[in-house]
């Protein structure tokens, strides 16, 4: 399945300022598949080392991290000659070997022409515990498949090309809009985990993708316990099933798990965040950039890894999604908000691969805007709604209190054209953030 990261990998290969590349992302989002296909199609020789499956590889990185020694032993291990500029060296599940992570620095300094990519399912747990070679590596994020990638994978390339873009908007007809919404419903049920998408594409059955969701859920749970020996599996299980139901809502630890101590819930939530199964969206007052400068650590909303896994965990009836004309009416609009947040995060997020929103807590008139989108040094508030402008009270309040913000976007499942009403711009919910 073609992924957006394919183009980025080709650009990385050609760059004269190339550094060893570390691909970050949750388990089973397709990192290994994409790198392997890239290596096999764009290099004369390709070497893949899996530090989780083959523990003997670890010995190569013990002791002296001499690049000459490591290259020699890697060639012997793989029985393949390594030629800088013609060979791709792929270090998979690199979090299993901290010395291999450290070696990236020396490869960059001493053999800069050698193409090296590293990836790992639980890499975030390691990054915070070692002295990482900052400035000597580059990062690329990989998320679940976007709606655009889903359409391409399911053989609807022409429909994928019709998706409007927020920066260069081209409206679609009502007929095409209805076809896009029909596929969007299937994407929301299938989600963007590659295995679930593959199962759906091969069988045409949404039920088959639901089977994959259960398999993925269980594998996530077991991997978390492996990397966090002291983790409370019951607490993690509870949060993984309950957090998706809080998407679109501000959360409090006591509400997430009233039967456990707050400290336990905080710990488990932090584990889920580091495993990239959960993204914490912080509230910013949006008075200026960067948004993170005024972000609150107390006011937050959750975004789950994948909309398909979300609907699975929440037990949403698939028929309710398929028969509903307006997706904002399904599950209190949380599915539509998860979808937009997931797409926004896949496009680098609000700021530095993070998401932010705006909230104001006042007894007389509290207000909240779903997302803050930053483009070309400007802030654009985004609401995921279905109603007319008159019902967008929070967005109007935000624009009144932030005169430096030119306008706000309303992403709606019922819109198929761009409509400007005062300082509001209505666009389809499936508009791409490119």
Q: What does this protein structure show overall?
A:
By secondary structure, the chain is of the alpha/beta class. The protein folds into 2 domains: 137 residues, 3-Layer(aba) Sandwich (Rossmann fold); 282 residues, no CATH class. 41% of the residues lie in helices and 17% in strands. The chain is built from 17 helices and 14 strands. The strands form 3 sheets. It has a 5-stranded parallel β-sheet, sandwiched between helices. The chain has a 5-stranded mixed β-sheet with strand order 10-11-12-14-13. Helix 8 packs across helix 14, helix 9 packs antiparallel against helix 10 and helix 11 packs across helix 13. It starts with a helix and ends in a 6-residue tail after the last strand. The mean pLDDT is 93. Pfam families: AAA_14, DUF4143.
Describe the sheet with the most strands: 5 strands, parallel
- Given as residue ranges, the uncertain stretches (5+ residues, pLDDT < 50) are none
Helix residue percentage: 40-55%
Strands of the biggest beta sheet: in what spatial order? 2-3-4-1-5
